[in-house]
Structures are given as C-alpha cells and as structure tokens.
Amino acid sequence: MAAVLKKRALAEYNKSYQDGPSSKKLHLAKKPLIGSSAAAFVGLLEKCKSSDEALQLLLRISDCLQFQESDVEEAIKKLSEHFQSEEESAVRVKILWLFCDIGLECPGANLNHLVDETIHLIKNETSHKVIAQGLGTLLKLGCKLSDDKTLMQRLVAVAKENLKDTSHQVKCRCLQLISELYPISPEPDRTPDMITEANVIVKLLSDYSNAEDARVRSEAFQSLLTLHGRGLTLSADIYEQVCPALSDDYEIVREVALKLIWLLGNKYPENTVTLQDGETTMRLVDDAFIRICSAVNDLCMQVRALACTLLGTTRAVSDRFLLQTLDKQLMSNMKKKKTAHERGAELVRSGAWASGRRWADDAPGQLLEQSTVQLLPGGAAGAFVHGLEDEFMEVRTAAVEAVCELSMQNPIFATTSLDFLVDMFNDEIEDVRLRAIDSLNKISHHIVLREDQLETILSALEDYSMDVREGLHRMLGSCTVASKTCLEMCVDKILENLKRYPQDKRSTFRCVQRMGSNHATLVLPLTTRLLGVHPFFDMPEPDVEDPSYMCVLILVLNAAQHCTTMLPLFEEHTVKHYTYLRDTMPHLVPLLPIGENQFSRKQKSESAMDDSAVRRFFENVLQHIDNVTLSTNVRLKMLQSAEEQLNKLSEMEPLVTGAANFTAMFARCVLALHTALNNPAGPPAHALQNLSTDCLRLQHQFSGVTEQENACVWQLALRVSAARLIAAVESAAITTGAGAGAVALSMAAALTHHAELLDRLLVSAGMEPDPFTIAVFQQLSCGEPKPGSLARALHPLLLAAPLPQIPTPNLKIRMCTATIIEPASDNDTVLRFCAGLITGVSFEAEVLRVREPGALRVRVAYPDRRVHALLPPRDHLRPLDHQNTNDDGTENVRLLTKVLISHGVWTEPCGVDISVCLAVEEGGGREAQLVELCRPVRVTVAPKPIKRGI
Questions:
Q1: CA-wise closest residue to 919 among 880, 867, 882
Q2: In terms of Cα–Cα distance, which of 523, 592, 594 is closest to 559?
Q3: Peptide bond between residue 823 and the one before it cis (omega within 30 degrees of 0)
Q4: How far apart are alpha carbons 227 and 231 in whole angstroms?
C-alpha cells in the first residue's frame, strides 16, 4: 500500500517541481480482459444456434459493456445484422436496449448513427414490444442530442407515424417522445409558423385524452404537463376538455387530470367559465378550486391526498369558496340569485297553468340526466373537513399542510381554520399531530388563542412523545393568547408538566422566555402571584435551583424587558436571583437596569468591541512573532505570551472565540513541536500524539477557515508527521521485532499521503510552500526511499527549519463545540447491573457548528483504558429548535441517544468517561482518529456478579 502511494506521490512531485518543460502526461487506461470483452461476445452471436443462447450472450454483453472505441461501430453493425435475422421478439428488444446502453455509456459511440439504425430497424417491425423499446431507445438517445432541432423534428415525425399502432405501450412511448423531444424555442424567438405548429402538437396530444385505454389517456395529460414544464404555454381552451376526466373510471387518469386542472387554474385565474346552467359565470381559478375540492371525496387514497396538496398551493381563490371548504353546509349564494319579477317571467315562458302546475312537471325519472343527480353535496363544501377526518394518515397530513399553506396567505382563513387545526392535536398518529403543531406555529402571527382552544392544546402537553411536547413548547412560545386567564392557564400547565417530564427543562425555558417577551402586558398583573410577593408579609425566599421557579423568573424577567412598570415590584432576593441567572444563562435572561446593572446598557455600549479593535489587538499580539531578525528563543517566548493572551480573549469575547482559539492552538503546536524536537532523548511519544491530535483539531474542528490558513495548518501537520516518522524509526532501531517496522512503514505511508494532499492544497490556494515542505517534496521525488533513509534525511532538515508562519487572524473562524446536558457532571448515582450484560445511560448533548453530523461519535472510556467509539443512529441527531443552521454552512444538532455500557465484574464502583467526538480520517490506510469536542462526563458504574440459583 505504501509503495503504491509513493509511486503516486513520485509522479505528482516530478510533475510539480521539474525544471524546464513539463513532461508528457501519461493516460493510464485499464485494459479489459479478453475473456470479458464485450466485443468478443458480439463476435460469438453468429455461432448461436438458438434464441436462448443469443439472449444469454446479450445479457453477458450488457453486464460487461466494455468496448474499445475502434470496436463500437463494428459491434453495432453485427448487432443490427443479428436483429434482422432474429425471430424471437425478446432478443430483438434486448438488442435495441443495448443500442441505448452503448450510446449512453461507451465512449466513441456515434449517437446519430445509432438513431438512424434504430429508426431503420423498427420501420418494418411487427412486434409491439420491439417498437416500444425502439421508441424508448430513441427517446434516451434524443435527450443527448437535444440541440439538433432537425433530428428532433425527425424523431417527432417517427413518433407521429407510430401513434396509429394498436398497442397502448407504443402509443404511450410515442406521446412521451413527442412531449420531451419536440423542439421549443424561447418565447421571443417564436414565429407565427412555430406557434401554429405548436398548437397542432398540443391538439394532437389532447385528442388522445379520449383514447379507449386509460394508460394512453393518462399519458396524454402527462405529455401536456411535460410540454408546459419545458416552456410551451398551454391554452386555457383545453380546460373544458380536461374537466370530464376528473370523473374517469381509472385513478391514474383522475390524478393527472387534477394536476392539469390546477395548472390551468393558476395560469389563467381571471378567465371566466360558464357553468352548466348556461348563464352563471365564474372565475377559472374558482372553478378549478371547486373541482379539486370535489376530488377530496374520491375513492382512491392517492387522489384524495393529491387533491389536498393541490388545494394548499392554489392561489387567488375567492374568500367565499375558500371559507366554504371548512363548512359542510352548502352556501345559499353559490348560485346567481334572481328577482321575483325574473322568476315570474320564467314561469310565463315555460307555459305554466293557472293552477300552478308547470308543463311536464311529472316527467318520469328515467328522463333525468345522470350528471344532474348528486347523492352527496359536491363542490367546495367541507372539503378540508373531509380531508382532516379521512381514514388514511397520508390524506390527513396533506390536508393539514394545505390548510397551513392557505392560512399563511389569508389571515381570515387562518382564524377560521384555527379550531380545525387544534382538533388535529388529538389525532392518533404522532406525525399528524406534529404537522398540526408545526402548522399552528407557522401561522402564529395571524391567530389569537382562546380559552377553549387552549384547553385542547394544553392537554396535548401530556403526550408521551418528546417531539410533540417540544413542538408544543415552540408553538406556545410563538403564539399570542387572548387574555390574562389564558396566560395563567398556560403557565400553570407548563409548570405542572415540568414536574412530570423534568427532561423537558431546556425546551420549557425557551418557551416561557418567548411567552414573556410576547405578553408583557399580560404578565404584569400576574407578577405578584407568580413571584409570591405579599403587600404586608415577607414571604420565604424561593430556591433559585428549582426548575419551576426558574421558569417563572425567566417569564417575568423577559416581560420586564418590554414593561418596566413591573421592575419596582421585584424584591431584593428577586434582583439577586436575576444576577445569578444573568451570569449562568445569559441567552435566556435579558439585560435589565436593576441592581448593580442600572447603567449596564451604557457600560455595554462603551465596552463593546468592534471588529477593528479586535483586529488591532490580534496585530499587536502577533506583530513581532514572524520577525526573522529576532532570535528563536525570543520568538518562542513571544509565542507563549501570545497563546496566554489569546486564551483570555476567547473567554472574554464570545464572538471571537473561534479565531482566538484557532490562533492560540496553532501557537501551542509550534511551541510543543519545537520542544519535542530539541529533547535530548528524542521526541516523546505522548507529546507527538498530542501534537497530532491538535493538528487534527485545527483541520476539522474549525469552520470559516480560508484556503491559505488551511494550507499553513497542513504544512505544520507535515512537520508533525515527519517527527512521528523519525520517532518511529528510532524506536524500531532500539526495539527488534516486526511490529516496530510495521509502525515505521505506516508512518512513512502517512507522510507520503499527507504530502500528496498538501501539494494539491497548495496549488488550489495559490501559495508557495515553505522551505521544509519543499525539502520533503524533493526527498519523496527522488525515488522510493525506505522509512529509515527518509527519516535520516528529514531529521536535520526538520531541526534546521525556521518556525512555521502564524496565519493572519480571521475573525470569521468559528469553532465546533459540544455541551453535554445529560448525564449531569455532578451526578453521584451509581449504576449497578449484572456483569457481562448491558445497561443504557440516557445521553443528551448539543453540538454547535458541526460540518458533518454523520462524523459525530460518542466516546466511552473505561477505567482499564479500553475505549469504544459509538456511532449514534441518524434519527438520534435532531436539529436544534432555536437555531438549526448557521451562515457558514455548519449545523447545530441535538444528540439524544442511549449510551450502552457493559463490562466484567468490578470490586468497587469506578468511573466511565463519556464524551462527544468527531471521527476524523487521517488517510494513508490508518483508522479514524477521535477529536474530542468537550470535556468528558464521568458516570459511576458498578458491575456486580450474577447470582446463581434462586
């Protein structure tokens, strides 16, 4: 493995650092074996005695499909000859299939020749399957040649000729080919002839919507949708032709017709259509909306779900039809009203007798048209009511999302639909409940919750699902309640629920924080009750560590930010508790002018650091470190001082923590590397291991790093890799055995791999390598040095190399961090379980600014130095509800899982360390290394022996 990597690196470095003209690049192609060559199999087709043998041979060609460019044309010729002499239709289908695969995958294939050959072969074909496969081949090859409009016209003509076929499969392929390959010019470039021709094509496709086979009808409507998606504007005249398809016997036709109705309704909303009575007119979008509403009562579940989805995306619908979807009773004004004079004139024209009986009023029922009789109320009446009460989860979910989409656009509809969404909180399916909660959260700016609605909402807080409870917390935090009584109900229920589910503490804190900010005027009359303030007596001081009291404090303090009238109501201990919470949870408690912080806003504005001040501080700290005229000892002392100052800056200013930690860690690596190299006994193994870990942290734990800064880090890591190689070779010289030599070979392979990646990174960043990096490239390009000779050559170069350059501070750098919430660090509970079995520890952590959540691992370290890296399931990584993504592309995730612990018998309880890490691939064939993102939490475990007998 190492030798292969060295050969690759040798070729790369010879190309990069050769004086004079660059050598000719070699194109290495993997030559297929003779036994597996597709060209050889094609040559055996002539010797096949039966169709079965030919089919098996064609299958082997399809599996291999490796042709030399010079053999492609000959192979197509032989396949075509065999096609004309073959009697079995399955073999001919496979040959046309191969034509498509050869054209798409084999280099050097002439697509135009393949198209011509396919058209020629299917011209006199009689098998429907073969013709359908030929049209499919033409379709896929034509998509590759879509720029040739002449060829596209020719393929469309071929499809028109085959539309007369009696097979539904052939007709569907023809319609599909026409819709996808018909050349469509940009709208400004269209001539009258082009428009006329396009109308003819649309007329041709729409005519096949009346075909006998349902599959052809469905494909005809789908072809019209495809043409529209490619930029061809459909006329509103086909609306009347599509409407009867909504009552088709086959759901595939009704489904596609619904999409076309929705498309035309949104495309031409203000067009008018005439109803069946011949007098009443209606806007096209309203009529389309009513027809889609009727599909909510369809027999097919997929059609009902699609209808609900389309209802949510229909715009510009009149309010009277929109509101009718939430009421099962038919509206009285759905039809045009007539005056008494008009009704009397109608009676006279109809020839009514003086007795009041109308002419032919007693006609038999058989003369009534079937379309005029409806057993169930149709149209928009109660469409969403039916959708929300559907027996299938898919339909109810689509209905909830549709109501949410329409409510976001229409405040009146949002207020009317509020009761229906609240009722969905009691749905039997958790996913439907979650969708209803999220929908209410999205339309929260349109609605005000009443007491009766809050009773249903708050009852859902007792749900066993943590996702439902946290979704309700988000929804309650963003909604507005109607009165003080409503707010009091919310607070009491939240505090009661917190005692039942103490694990929801953090989500509850964020909920009451937003509730206090949104309802400052309603919190004011409840302040004395919530804080237990009495006008005459001194009440006992509450425990500031009590979660219920912390919720009340967070609620009141966030309300006081917008209503300073309640500040004089705070007692002395409340002000002290505010100071404590402000220090421990600054993201939940706002800055208030009380106690020692009466002038805090002014002080904050004066002491706030802007970017220019931070940049000047960085420049002052690092201004003389890169001064070559200074001695190495002086620069090392300055580096040590800079590291200390940057560590203090990261603690003082959270906004520049990432940049300060990045520069401080880089400086610490430079100091540690210099100390390890100048050790008389050689570089210590533990120091090199720590250096390697710090380099991995610099490479993978920080985001927002530029290519130039990343190149500096990789050059530092190259020095560390060289030092580890030197230490491994020295250890192998002292210790005799195969293990030490294998470690040295592994270190040499890692150095070669690292140098190869660094070379590409430097080229990408446009940077010149430092002297030591150039020396390493030269040593690796001289041949295939052994680990010993390479280490001996690099040792003096590494000692004589100047200190690495400290990259210029970049204030956009952010650091990936993790915070373990559960188990708590001060937990003294001993977990006892039978030795050899498994116990689960509830684990919760918040990871901020992680680039690849899939690289997160839970590290479990036992007292006997055994370490396990557990990969959490993907569904255990959830986005943080308050901040999911960042501006630099990183993610904030919440890790909620069970850590499985198992061990043998212990004589006494011991601690097991659990932490969150990143699994980092070093390359060079080595295992992934773990980079810790936080300090480990210790869990005390006591495996006890299994008791035998009863």
A1: 867
A2: 523
A3: yes
A4: 7
Residue 786 has pLDDT above 90, yes or no: no
Q: Write the single-letter amino acid at 583.
A: D
Q: Could you give the angle at which helices 284-294 and 301-312 cross, rounded to 10 degrees?
A: 150
Query: CB–CB of 393/346 below 8 Å?
Result: no
pLDDT of residue 822: 86
Q: Report the b/e string of 123-139 with b at 16+ CB within 10 A.
A: eebebbbbbbbbbbbbb
The number of residues in the chain equals: 950
How many Å apart are CA 133 and CA 190, to the nearest integer?
33
List the structure tokens of 765. 């960043």
Strands 272-274 and 281-283: antiparallel
- CB within 8 Å of 325: residues ≥ 6 apart: 293, 311, 380, 381, 382, 383, 384, 385
| Chain mean pLDDT for the chain | 82
- What is residue 314's three-state secondary structure? coil
pLDDT number for residue 25: 39
Q: What is the pLDDT of residues 476-493, one digit of tens each?
A: 999 999 899 999 999 999
Cα–chain-centroid distance for residue 82?
49
- For residue 758, CA distances in Å to 524, 709, 753, 755, 778 come to 62, 12, 9, 5, 14
Burial 171-200 (b: 16+ CB within 10 A, else e): bbbbbbbbbbbbbbeeeeeeeeeeeeebee
- What secondary structure letter does DSSP report for 907? S
Nearest partner of 134 among 173, 167, 171, judged by Cα: 173
Q: Which of 169, 122, 165 is nearest to 141 (CA)?
A: 122
Q: Which residues of 857-871 are buried (b: 16+ CB within 10 A; e: fewer)?
A: bbbbbbeeeeeeebe
Under a CB-based contact definition with an 8 Å cutoff, are residues 461 and 495 in contact?
no
The set of residues, in sequence order, having a beta carbon less than 8 Å from that of 360 and lying 6+ positions away, is none
Q: Shortest CA distance to 931 belongs to which of 592, 697, 598? A: 697
CA-to-CA dists, residue 911 to 138, 180, 829, 870, 938, angstroms: 69, 66, 11, 18, 6
Nearest to 845 by CA among 812, 813, 870: 870
How far, in Å, are 341, 415, 445, 586 from residue 407 at the CA level?
Answer: 42, 8, 10, 35
- Tell me how far apart the alpha carbons of residues 656 and 621 are, in angstroms, rounded to a whole number: 15
Give the whole-angstrom CA distance, residue 649 versus residue 628.
26
The residue assigned the tokens 């980092």 is 920
666 in Cβ contact with 807 (< 8 Å): yes
Cβ atoms of 399 and 306 closer than 8 Å: no
Residue 30's pLDDT is 39
- Do 206 and 225 touch, CB atoms closer than 8 A? no
| β-bridge mates for residue 848, sequence order | 817
The residue among 771, 777, 677, 670 whose CA lies nearest residue 727 is 677
Percent of residues in the chain assigned helix, strand, coil, to nearest 5: 60, 10, 30
- 174-205 pLDDT, tens digit per residue, is 999 999 988 888 878 888 888 888 889 999 99
Nearest of 743, 690, 759, 740 to residue 720 by alpha carbon: 690
For tokens 């086909």, what's the residue? 238
CA distance 412 to 201: 43
